[in-house]
């Protein structure tokens, strides 16, 4: 049983690591769509067309499910992908609900790319779950892209987070939603800058749990067979930009998860 995981760069590896932790018997194919990055500055139409194209790649790979490990792609393009691909497709939504429940002071910030920050879906989530909480939305055009260039970009990443944190602290934020899968990769930087008074919420474990639920519903017998085999799954890394960034991607994969192979995928 094989599951495809996609993102514009390294961010979805935060989701992949949680899936591998919870479902170690799955084979995982990770596609970093670096030739089309960053997703945050693309139009809705561009992202919808691209996601369908990537879905066809995963169909050729024979995956049993696809995880769209990107908030931006999820909020604007996942419905179009579901219309085109008839297998379980799991997305990533900003964790507004748990943040509003966890915030003691009812002061919540959502940090996202510009597309997610301005999306109707994020607005709906905030309206549904904020109740008496004050929820502010912040965005960064550069942070996800700079995280892809880590560790060379460490100083830029830190400077951006410090700037964003200044606004959060001025608003007395005590719960932060990381609404881009790139951001949890540098969660330690957020924790260092914001201190212990701010709860940081990211979606990776929730996505892994939802993937398991869908596989149990849609493919119970193949799933059970794979579990009973006792064989640990493999991780394959793919990029649409060549192999130059594969070492950067592999550096974010949890050390105990062996990468079995990597390859360049040419997608027009």
Overall description:
Belongs to the aspartate/glutamate racemases family. It is an enzyme of class 5 (isomerase). Substrate binds at residues 7-8, 39-40, 71-72, 181-182. It catalyses: L-glutamate = D-glutamate. It comes from Marinomonas sargassi. The chain has 268 residues and is an alpha/beta fold. 47% of the residues lie in helices and 18% in strands. It contains 12 helices and 10 strands. The protein has helices spanning 13-22, 44-61, 71-84, 96-102, 114-117, 120-129, 143-148, 154-170, 187-194, 204-218, 220-229, 246-252; strands at residues 2-7, 27-32, 65-68, 89-90, 107-112, 134-139, 175-178, 199-201, 235-239, 259-264. The strands form 2 sheets. A 6-stranded parallel β-sheet has the order 4-3-1-2-9-10, sandwiched between helices. Strand 3 (65-68), helix 3 and strand 4 form a beta-alpha-beta unit. Helix 2 crosses helix 3 (71-84) and helix 8 packs across helix 9 (187-194). The longest helix is centred in the first third of the chain and has 18 residues, at 44-61. The protein is globular. It starts with a strand and ends with a strand. 47% of the residues are buried. The model has no long low-confidence stretch (mean pLDDT 92).
